[in-house]
Amino acid sequence: MKRNETRALIMRFLKAFDEGDSAAMLACLADDVIHDINQGDREIGKEKFRWFLAARARHFRESIGDIAVMTDEDGMHAAAEFTLRGTYLSSVEGLPQATGQRYALAAGCFFDVDDGRISRVSAHFNRTAWIEQLETR
Predict the structure, then answer these.
(1) Euclidean distance between the first and final Cα of the chain, in Å?
(2) Which domains, and CATH codes, for the chain?
(3) What is the pTM assigned to this prediction?
(4) DSSP structure string for 15-84
(5) Residue 135, Cβ neighbours under 10 Å: how many?
(6) Statement: residue 47 has pLDDT above 80
(7) Rounded to whole angstroms, how far apart are CA atoms 15 and 12?
(8) Which residues fall within 8 angstroms of residue 99, CB to CB, at 6 or more apart?
């Protein structure tokens, strides 16, 4: 895959995330996608990713901005940095009580791309800073 095609794929995925369009996000993924959840487990498969998105949507309304996408020469690897903005809608066990808190933090993802689809998504943000925002807002 060419560098510009990889960049377009990643931007499509991130735009779909920003718009809350799970179907469009899933269309960008390989069936056996690897999902490394921020400071959490690794899940494999598009169906697990679908469940992750549904659970996330129950508890949070999120959008992203300030997006910067970088790719390697052959288009097999990419990274994106962005600002994650959200509202905490309903409580999650192990997190503070949800009261509509808003948050904003720097975040990023690393991607592998194979055969025109994202085959790995590895999400990263400062969980401690995020929880502090949930506790104080």
Answers:
(1) 44
(2) 3-136 (3.10.450.50)
(3) 0.92
(4) HHHHHT-HHHHHHTEEEEEEEE-TTS-EEESHHHHHHHHHHHHHHEEEEEEEEEEEE-TTSSEEEEEEEE
(5) 11
(6) yes
(7) 5
(8) 88
